[in-house]
Amino acid sequence: MSRRARRRQSPEPREVMIDAMSHEGRGIARVNGKTVFVFGALVGEKVLIQVTKSTRKFDQANTIEVIEASPQRIEPGCEAFQVCGGCSLQHLGSDDQITFKQQSLLDMMTHAGLEAEKVMPPLRAAVWGYRKKARLGVKYVHKKGRVLVGFRERNKPYIADMHRCEVLLPEVGHRLELFSEMIGKLEARAQIPQIEVAADARHIQLVFRHLQPLSDHDLAVLTEFSQQHGFYIQLQPGGPETVNNLYPAQQRLELDALQDGQSRIEFNALDFVQVNSEINRQMVVQALEFLDLQSDDQVLDLFCGLGNFTLPMARNCAQVTGVEVDSAMVERARTSAASNNIVNSSYHCADLTRPDRDFTWMRRHYDKILLDPPRTGALEMAQLLGDFNAARIVYVSCQPSSLVRDAAIICDQGYRLTHLGVMDMFPQTAHVESMAVFERK
Fold it and tell me: Is residue 225 located within the same domain as residue 310?
């Protein structure tokens, strides 16, 4: 056997004991002093593993047999769990999942020398069928003679051969085969790489990305599909600016953060909105409670997006200033404020990774501040928050490591961490959303 062939040959499966869990939800074993991250394994289990990737410092592996199971282990609720890369914790009960996420966040804070005065109860809702926004991969596989629709395989570039997704809203997740059959009828079936999915309380919008112009036949198939199943259908032949309505001619999705009809925000499938509308509602309510807005408060909303927090806050204070890097989202936030008769909010387009003290909004005092940054966090703005001298800061995070980093910076500017808690925005996954509250000392 050649040296190259030996390198390609997979190592033999081996038994290991799992003695810890990583923050990404993988079991941790040690073999001859080397760390092995094991998908599908829980603390205290003896499992048979197959190494899938080896580096100098660590290995990655899959569980191929559970020899001694943890009492926390349950049967995964989705038939695609073993292959699909969308979920990683279905073998752990939902109560244990949220406990794991919360403890992971607290451990990271402790490691950084930070401790919240109070840990908030986790925000929770339905753990299946909750996801109202997603990007589905599409691939016509000639050898299979069919179109695959779903998420990518774990750690691989291929679309998983799956028939259902249990975390997507059922109207979509339970109809993957229906999508597959419909796309299979298209002349351009090999030129459809993805479907963007978004839904509000009444409608589901599907954006079909296509790499070649669609024929009249294909347009007719998609239109009939919309009419028969009630989906909004949009087409995307190029960048986001090329998205256009196929059927019906008029389409409208609305985000109603508090679900009370008071702050309706129009959006579409390519906009950023939270995937879990019930957790989003609880999140906004909790943020408002901790901000404790007063009628004369001046509030700064950083990374404001479409105004998910901005509009509800504006109804409870004197003025809200929203800042967002995406000019299209800023304009849509302005439009939504006007359509909701909100006159005490203003919006600025700015790159918050490169804040400029000469910005007009940077030279003002704010009584309260809310941040909802992307996964990279708010490093550059965190270093400047003390300049505003706000009495209270609420930080909404989608990445624990960046929150921990930024929390340390905020506390160094004269704040104390009063409350910390997780929000189960993505059940069945190891993804951790959280909220931290800071008060001026």
Answer: no
pLDDT given for residue 261 in this prediction: 85
Residue ranges making up the domain that contains 171: 133-199+204-251
One domain, residues 114 and 37: no
Q: What sign does the dihedral 18-20-26-30 (CA atoms) show?
A: negative
Cα–Cα distance, 73 to 70 (Å, whole number): 5
Give the total number of structural domains in the chain: 3
CA–CA separation, 200 and 24 (whole Å):
30
User: Which of 78, 84, 304, 398 is flagged as catalytic?
Assistant: 398
In a domain, residue 256? The reply is: no
Is residue 87 domain-resident?
no
| Interval 13-36: pLDDT, tens | 999 999 999 998 999 999 999 999
Q: For the chain, what is the mean pLDDT?
A: 95
Q: Measure the CA–CA gap between 340 and 175, rounded to whole angstroms.
A: 35
Between CA 346 and CA 333 the distance in angstroms is 9
Which amino acid, one-letter code, is at 405?
R
Q: Residues 246-266: what's their mean pLDDT?
A: 93
Does residue 415 sit in helix, strand or coil? strand
Q: How far, in Å, CA of 343 to CA of 311, rounded?
A: 10
Q: Cα dist. 313→300, 369, 386 in Å?
A: 10, 11, 21
Are 294 and 237 part of one and the same domain? no
pTM equals 0.93
Model pLDDT for residues 210-236, shown as the tens digit of each residue: 999 999 999 999 999 999 999 999 999
What is 126-149 written as a DSSP string? -SSS-B-EEEEEEEEETTTTEEEE
CATH number reported for the structural domain that contains residue 176 in this entry: 2.40.50.1070
Task: Using alpha carbons, list the distances in angstroms from residue 395 to 90, 224, 301, 347, 378.
Answer: 28, 45, 10, 19, 10
Taking residues 176-194, report their average pLDDT.
Answer: 97
Q: Assess whether 84 carries a catalytic annotation.
A: no
